[in-house]
Amino acid sequence: MAACRIGEFAKSKAGHDKEQVFVIINIENEYVYLVDGKSRKLESPKKKKLKHIQVINKIDDNLLNKIQSGNNITNEEVKRAIKLYVKNGI
């Protein structure tokens, strides 16, 4: 089972969203809740089993700082972080 943290990037390994990059926003037992800011927004995250994702051991610094300080993140910030990761590999 993949070890993961809130704010980390993850790639879907199964389902119609296979190979899509998401950000983990919540973890409950064997499930994670994923958002991408576009099709899966913070208001309706995708619930996925841990075995169906590949955790990418990278976290966007801006997202991490906001999460750690207790501030809310926005869909735009999630989209920007994913776009930067895909483009540059952060």
Give a quick precis of the structure.
The chain is of the alpha+beta class and 90 residues long. Helices cover 24% and strands 32% of the residues. The protein is globular, with a radius of gyration of 12 Å.
Give structural attributes:
90 residues; alpha+beta; SH3 type barrels; 5-stranded antiparallel sheet; 2 helices
Secondary structure elements and pairings:
Layout: E1 8-12, E2 21-28, E3 31-35, E4 46-49, E5 53-59, H1 61-68, H2 75-88
Order of helices and strands: EEEEEHH
Number of strands: 5
Please tell me the overall pLDDT. 90
What overall form do the CA principal axes indicate?
globular
Q: Give start-end ranges of low-pLDDT stretches.
A: none
Oligomeric category:
single chain
Helix content: 10-25%
- Strand order, largest beta sheet: 4-3-2-1-5
CATH topology: SH3 type barrels
Tally of contiguous helical segments: 2
What Rg, in angstroms, do the CA atoms define?
Answer: 12 Å
Alpha-carbon distance between the two ends: 25 Å
CATH class: Mainly Beta
Overall CATH architecture: Roll
Question: Major sheet, described briefly?
Answer: 5 strands, antiparallel
Indicate the structural class: alpha+beta
What's the domain count?
A: 1
Strand content: 25-35%
What does this structure look like?
With 90 residues, the chain is an alpha+beta fold. It has one domain (8-88): SH3 type barrels (Roll). Helix content is 24%, strand content 32%. The protein has a five-stranded antiparallel beta sheet with strand order 4-3-2-1-5. A hairpin with a 2-residue loop joins strand 2 and strand 3. It is globular and about 30 Å long. The model has no long low-confidence stretch (mean pLDDT 90).
